[in-house]
Amino acid sequence: MKTLLLFIIFLGIRAVRRKDDEQFQANQEILHNDPSFDDLEEIAENPLGAKVLQTVALQIKSGEGIDSIVSLLTNLKSDLEGKQIQQDGSNAAIQSQCKSDMDSYSQRIQLAVNEINDVEFKVGRLESDIEDYTGELELKQSQIDTFQGAENSLRDLRLKQSANYNKRLGQLKEMINAFQVMLPKMHELYDKVQQRDSESFIQEEAFANSFVQLANSGPSNPILALVQVTSMMDSRSIQTIIEKMEVVRDSLITSVDEETALEEQAIRDNDVTLNEIFNAMQALTREKAADDESLQDTIRTRDQQQKRGSDAQAEFVASKTGMKQRRGQCQELLVQYQQNTIQRSREIEIIKKVQIIIQTKLNVVKSFIQEQQIS
């Protein structure tokens, strides 16, 4: 009897439990179909959402009230919002620095471009000056060579003229010396013939014989031949010959003086011309040296400008490269900031959703935690 009673009680308890289970299952079905359940599933897929639900589960199991849980979530949300504000400030500073860096690179690039343009202008002008100086040097060297050639030609001509003068002078002096030798002989002969004419006349046959003797003796001894010929003449004829010979001798002496004067004048004129050529060459040489110094100075200045241009070109390339790299870095930092902002905004929204669900659908939260076995 007692056993039967116990059996009946067992069956009653079992029936009650079955009814409770059915009621629980029905309630769970209702909670599972709540839209907030789907929200919690979506939240659980997020790493932060999963951690938040774990925290809520621990708070519920430890007996914390809704206000305590909501406060905890509020603090967590505030922490995220604070981090976002801090990151906003950091990003603003970074973007400001990026803008400053970009402006600095732009300024460097512009300065480099200005330098390059200025160098190109100045180098072009210096190249033109170098070309002008080079042309002047070539022209002056050509003029110097021309004067040098003229000087050499004048010296050669002077040597030839001097040689011709000496030759003519030698011939004239030889002729004068011949007359100087013959005239005394002629005067002596004149005296003898005059003495002879006072005694007798020269016969015609004697004159014919004298011409024959001149023809035979002339080539070997002209003076003797002349004496022999004139010895056949009368004194008046000899006097005439003497006078003509003296005229010729005096004319030869005059020619010597004239030739000497002309030679001396030619020497003076040549010296003046050579001195003028020398002075012109000296002046051209000084001008050429000054032009060459100016040319070298211009070349050095051109080379310095080209070095300046190379430096500016290197600065231009470095600035362009630096700007590109810095722009890439700034873009990466901006993208990272934007991604973090989006992620943090999602996390804040998740916390807000959890807060709302806890405040309005705590049973749904508990059911989800139980079903997902979150702890």
TrEMBL record:
Residues 1-18 form the signal peptide. This is Trichocyst matrix protein. Keywords: Signal. The lineage of its organism: Eukaryota, Sar, Alveolata, Ciliophora, Intramacronucleata. Residues 301-310 have a biased composition (Basic and acidic residues). It comes from the Eukaryota. The keyword Signal applies. Residues 301-323 are annotated as: Disordered. It comes from Paramecium sonneborni.
